[in-house]
UniProtKB/TrEMBL annotation:
<dbReference type="Pfam" id="PF04188">
    <property type="entry name" value="Mannosyl_trans2"/>
</dbReference>
<keyword id="KW-0812">Transmembrane</keyword>
<dbReference type="GO" id="GO:0016757">
    <property type="term" value="F:glycosyltransferase activity"/>
</dbReference>
<feature type="transmembrane region" description="Helical">
    <location>
        <begin position="97"/>
        <end position="116"/>
    </location>
</feature>
<protein>
    <recommendedName>
        <fullName>GPI mannosyltransferase 2</fullName>
        <ecNumber>2.4.1.-</ecNumber>
    </recommendedName>
</protein>
<keyword id="KW-0337">GPI-anchor biosynthesis</keyword>
<keyword id="KW-0808">Transferase</keyword>
<comment type="similarity">
    <text>Belongs to the PIGV family.</text>
</comment>
<keyword id="KW-0472">Membrane</keyword>
<keyword id="KW-1133">Transmembrane helix</keyword>
<keyword id="KW-0256">Endoplasmic reticulum</keyword>
<comment type="pathway">
    <text>Glycolipid biosynthesis; glycosylphosphatidylinositol-anchor biosynthesis.</text>
</comment>
<comment type="function">
    <text>Mannosyltransferase involved in glycosylphosphatidylinositol-anchor biosynthesis.</text>
</comment>
<keyword id="KW-0328">Glycosyltransferase</keyword>
<dbReference type="InterPro" id="IPR007315">
    <property type="entry name" value="PIG-V/Gpi18"/>
</dbReference>
Length: 119
């Protein structure tokens, strides 16, 4: 192997430390995201307490429409889609939480598909 001059040693040291830091951050975020439900409970708690649209969905009884399946089958109502459809009427806190999770999802999708480091 050829002798390394100081500039190559510094570049090699920098590349190795960046790779180690990237691996440590990926492992930490995987552990936090998969084993700690508090990361998801806290935004859900904030949405339930602060968002008036979610409170109105819970208090208003659900009436089936003409095109809905029979009463024996349950059709889940997705309150997140309701919030996204009413984006402009949501509170600032709700828009920030939804924006964070949508950005995280979209960045993860784009970076993972391109084989870039993402957790």
């Amino acid at each position: 192997m050829w002798p390394l001059d100081p500039s190559r040693k510094e570049v090699l040291r920098f590349a190795i430390s960046c790779r180690v830091l990237t691996l440590v951050l990926q492992v930490l975020t995987r552990f936090l995201g998969s084993s700690t439900p508090i990361v998801y409970w806290f935004p859900a708690h904030l949405l339930q307490d602060q968002e008036p649209l979610l409170r109105s969905l819970e208090t208003v009884p659900w009436k089936p429409h003409a095109g809905d399946p029979p009463p024996g089958q349950k059709v889940p109502r997705n309150s997140i889609m309701g919030l996204l459809c009413n984006w402009k009427t949501c509170s600032l806190l709700t828009r920030c939480i939804l924006g964070y999770f949508l950005t995280y999802w979209l960045l993860g999708l784009l970076l993972h598909c391109n084989f870039l480091p993402w957790t």
